[in-house]
Amino acid sequence: MDERLEKALDFSNYMLTLNNQKRLLAQKYQEELIHFYDGSQFTVTRELITFVSAMVSVNQDEVVITDDNNIPCQVEELENFYSEIINKYTTASNDYYSSYLKLKTSRSVEKLVNHEQ
Amino acid sequence: MSNKGVFLIARNNGHIDYVKQAVFLAKRIKRHLGVPVSVATDSVDYLVDTFGTDDFDKIISLEFTNDTNLRYFFDGSLSKKTASFKNSNRAGVYDLTPYDETIIMDTDYVVSNDLLKNCFESGSDFMIYKESDDIAKVRNEKEFKTISDTSVDFYWATVIYFRKTEANSIFFNLVKHIEQEWNHYRRVYQITSGLFRNDFAFSIAIHIMNGFQPGTFAQQLPGSMMYTVDRDILWNLNNDEMTFLVEKKNYLGEYTALKTSGQTIHVMNKQSLNRMIDQEFANE
């Protein structure tokens, strides 16, 4: 096989694996963003954080929020809820970031599938 | 307070050791979800003599039957066996389970995180996966979106959470009825294959329970159902890390390596899963 093609195919295989690992990491991140409160499921998004922050800033103690299944949930002790979702978001995001950095610096297929996530 | 747990069904078919998978899965469920596990099997003696009873809360005996529901079991792209697919009894779980709140799970569902334990705190009485992701992402996933080209939404019977309620009793009885009258229902719902599949029966039952339209009888379980098909190979299993060789698109017998960590995966290649379980049990 032409050496140029061989190198291109090696790189192509590496990119395929890299993209797969990135996708799996992103899926894991989405799972780790899920927060459960009083039987309801919330994926913690920047929008949710901003909304809850806004409600806290106008001294609301409780608020109704629709969860991932579009079911309304009465959230009480809003400040605690705010702390919980901030904690969930930062922990999941930091894990995602550090795993992504490891992935980015893995320069072979072997390293990509052997790295610690 | 209601009692809760996970319920497994393990019926060996001469080629695949589902009992071994159930023992393996029970250990992982206890570690990640922290709830008791019960199993229903037609091989109680084999289970007790070979693996003991420590991993299970209750062992329920099922009558042995020789099912004629045959299908291929692939082990990667290039190897396959034909064996019976003993998938009846799924709807009977409602009566068999000793728990008020039950997660029924296939034995090839490799639990690797604690996401599902939140079901027990959920406000929903019935949860199932509709959204799914093929970890390879090179295949057409249409067959897991609707039960046929012209039919209703597809739901995975691989994992189901339910409480014992009147509505759920009606639902599981409906699934039994659909199973008994399968040839009728598969024609009504335009399913071309004659093979009975629990996924299809549960999807049809959900459609009926919703008033023959999309609805809210079934809520989505946390996250999404991640799976690999039996053309892929589970190559390595180390605690919660799994390495797969996933089939390359249009290159029969060629694979791409892929690693997951802390992600629960439905491993449909049961033969490669059993090889990994053998290795894990040998190391214990």
Q: Secondary-structure element sequence of chain A?
A: HEEHEEHH
> Which residues of chain A sit in consecutive blocks of at least 5 with pLDDT less than 50?
none
How many domains, in number, for the residues of chain B?
A: 1
Order of helices and strands of chain B: EHEHEEEHEEEEEHHHEEEEEEH
Gyration radius of chain B, to the nearest Å?
18 Å
- Secondary structure tally, helices of chain A: 4
Q: What percent of the residues of chain B sit in helical stretches (DSSP H or I)? A: 25-40%
Q: State the helix count of chain B.
A: 7
Taking the alpha carbons of the first and last residues of chain A, their distance comes to 35 Å
Q: List low-confidence stretches of chain B.
A: none
* Proportion of residues in helical segments of chain A: 55-70%
Largest interface: A-B, 27 and 29 residues
Distance between the termini of chain B: 36 Å
- CATH topology assignment of chain B: Spore Coat Polysaccharide Biosynthesis Protein SpsA, Chain A
* Chain oligomer state: heterodimer
Number of strands of chain B: 16
CATH superfamily of chain B: Spore Coat Polysaccharide Biosynthesis Protein SpsA, Chain A
Structural class by sheet pairing and helices of chain A: alpha+beta
Largest sheet of chain B: 7 strands, mixed
- Counting structural domains of chain A, the number is 1
Mean pLDDT of chain B: 92
Properties at a glance:
heterodimer; A: 117 residues; alpha+beta; two-stranded antiparallel sheet; 4 helices; 64% helix; 14% strand; B: 284 residues; alpha/beta; Spore Coat Polysaccharide Biosynthesis Protein SpsA, Chain A; seven-stranded mixed sheet; four-stranded mixed sheet; 16 strands
